[in-house]
Amino acid sequence: xxxxxxxxxxxxxxxxxxxxxxxxxxxxxxxxxxxxxxxxxxxxxxxxxxxxxxxxxxxxxxxxxxxxxxxxxxxxxxxxxxxxxxxxxxxxxxxxxxxxxxxxxxxxxxxxxxxxxxxxxxxxxxxxxxxxxxxxxxxxxxxxxxxxxxxxxxxxxxxxxxxxxxxxxxxxxxxxxxxxxxxxxxxxxxxxxxxxxxxxxxxxxxxxxxxxxxxxxxxxxxxxxxxxxxxxxxxxxxxxxxxxxxxxxxxxxxxxxxxxxxxxxxxxxxxxxxxxxxxxxxxxxxxxxxxxxxxxxxxxxxxxxxxxxxxxxxxxxxxxxxxxxxxxxxxxxxxxxxxxxxxxxxxxxxxxxxxxxxxxxxxxxxxxxxxxxxxxxxxxxxxxxxxxxxxxxxxxxxxxxxxxxxxxxxxxxxxxxxxxxxxxxxxxxxxxxxxxxxxxxxxxxxxxxxxxxxxxxxxxxxxxxxxxxxxxxxxxxxxxxxxxxxxxxxxxxxxxx
Length: 497
Fold this sequence. Notes:
CATH topology of the largest domain: Alkaline Phosphatase, subunit A
Strand content: 15-25%
Structural class: alpha/beta
Largest sheet: 7 strands, mixed
CATH class of the largest domain: Alpha Beta
CATH architecture of the largest domain: 3-Layer(aba) Sandwich
Distance between the termini: 11 Å
Number of strands: 18
Shape: globular
CATH superfamily of the largest domain: Alkaline Phosphatase, subunit A
Helix content: 25-40%
Number of domains: 2
């Protein structure tokens, strides 16, 4: 290969956060990389979720081609699904490079298990005991580290903040050390390293990050300094392998504040598209939800809400919490739904609305009529700004039959869609912050590119996430497949053969 490529993945990375931290001096490596090369916002696919986004990055194919639209996909009867664990049988860019004779390395991609490549593959996200390729790779790494290779961070609990932040920072440091070690030892032609911790931090702590840099808590600034240091360490080790190099910093999506919740199934029920057999059976839950929302109007309620909620979510008291609040998930509520008369529901992708395949009266003509009716009513909804997206208009490919009938985007993604029935009204503006973190995804990811052949400040147009794979392939002298949704910007970047 004439050129080697390093990709540093910052899950949820956004210039809205990186720029203030860089200006404050916390990100010297990333700031220097931007100055020596070029940068651009990098729009994600929609829904802008980790699984479909990173898989679209990896393959250069959009969700319609992959048939992957969220973390989960339907599995059997109503209210049943399973987690999406792989982009295969599609090929990733490193599969193409591997077949071309390039040595490749992949660290921490959310995939269930490694598979044979010319190089190495250490999966992430799903399990600490996922098979690596080669099989001995994990034990070799952990021998060098002197401790287990870091897995996904545990669920955040406010009372454990110090320990959780320490774990996140340590995981970044260890991942950087492992990636640098493998870059030095294996000298791959292509290396992808994903830092997932950045997204987890932003989800939980966005309200504390969305401030002037000098007002951001010290543990969060220390975390981002660790990210920057780890990226610099990997980049240095990779460049020691010689030959012309290109470093890309890529995020799967952006991040921002979450202001409100939209309960799509509750809206569908109110509008008559989703129907219960004998009432929704959530009377007890309605009383609890009213009490929760009312408590947030008072300082004592806001103060006590978080520790009480965390206590009721603990393993020991979870049954008590369910007894008090009732079952509200879509899976738990599915048996109460009248599946022969329901027209539409939202599951298992929160941003999606599906037409009911279990209703015998939904002819193709009736289905088209329902989609038009849904679109009109959603767009006329006055309490929030709802964009309705047709998957056939924004995607391509042979797997669109797996897509929802339509997708929704609420208040520019400041309002997050949910599938459950925890409240009796669809839109929750006074969102109880203790239930979830303060951040959610945005479309505006990041791209930073620097290397021996990249001119500072060069314009690369308006690339999107699916354009990265064909760009890397072309930059490394491989021929991108003709069916990719993305288009290479290697020419404008100055790295075309």
